[in-house]
What we know:
By secondary structure, the chain is mainly α. It has helices spanning 5-15, 32-46, 65-74, 139-184, 191-215, 217-236, 246-249, 257-272, 278-287, 298-336, 343-366, 369-383, 385-394, 408-414, 418-444; strands spanning 50-54, 79-87, 90-98.
Amino acid sequence: MDFTTAQKFQARKLLAAPHVAHVQVVSSADDRHERFREVNLELARVSNICLCLVGPAPAGKPGGTMDLVKYARRRRRPTLLICVTTKEGEPIFTEEKSDWPTGDAKTDSGKLPRLPAPLDGIRLPAPTITPPCGVPLHARDYFEALKQFGSGVARANRDHFKRAAVVVIGTHFVATLCAVAALGFHEFRFLPALLVVEIVLLLAGWGVHMVLHHFQPAKIWAVSRLTAELSASGKAVAGCHLQLDYLFDLPFPPTLRPLLRTANVLHLASSRLTAASLAGQMATYVSGPSGRFGDRDQVAHFLTNLPKDHCKRRRADLVFQTCAWGAIAATALKLSLPHGAWTTPLGMLGVVLPVVAVGALSLAAAFGLEARVHTYLDTLSFLNPRIAARVAADIEMTSPRLPAEAGLVELLKNADTELEFHRLVLETETILMGELANWTSRRAFLPVA
């Protein structure tokens, strides 16, 4: 045994202190050294920096402090190892630093946690809720500030990207019309002006395209929306004292890692001393104002947007099919009919219609309609398979799950222990945030097709 009864009592007393944000068992191994090793691995995984205190001659046993130093250095975590010795009864401290910030902006690049560019203008508000001991801000204030700022930036850049996509495709389409008109009417008196208009339109489309690549509104939109939705997730789980594992397990952008670790620590510190009863947690998460199925009902969100995006996708496909077959018919008629008055208009249609078809597909791809429809249906099938099956039948698709299976919404409402409820909460958030992480990866690097 490592501890006496008195030491165990003292340890429990220390762990119950108000400044301790969270106590978690991370290992169930039988071997004590293996348990210590798993604790060290978890500390190195979730930490921004590593601070270790050792005696003058650390033994270096498996699972000991030097193991943690090794794992932290392997991950290139800024590590401060403090060695304590004594001289004439007085402690003497010596330091050994690894990957530690020096204060030089150039050499510290990548070592200090930074907010990504879309969020570097955020200013945290004055506390409206008394923060818990040891942290500067309550999690609710932190998440609210992030959500408001992220939502505003996301909306602005989403609108910029969509307008730019329409301009790029629209200018090239109209320029194509001008080129076709110039080919079809060689003796048109305004032919030079028509060609000038074509050049101006092509330059305008090219310029907007280059602006999109330079300022990257799609990427800013994606990261900002992801931040806002992660904040909404934090507000939804505010009443549950649990480690937000999905923040570390899902493939979120690396630039958000420091923010996610901060969010997790603030959540743990804020929820530990104020966690509600099971009934209160269920009411807050399932049907509360910030809950997943209350005012911001996720099922209602998917039910509203899935048919809309499906209709837009069908319209884009209809335009493509109509124009493609129209171009085929025009070309076939031009080949079969003798040369005459219809030759020029049919030739013009053979050029214009394929451009319209490609433009429809480009807009649908730029707005991600196909991916949104399938992702919405997949996520809805996890939350409520019966509703997902009904919607899938309405839009003539196949539901990913059988209607008879229990959905997460039903399971959350029927949970009768805190352990079961917390696991269902983590499963729900992993699915919802996983869908958003995938969307962010697609959206951030998807230009106007």
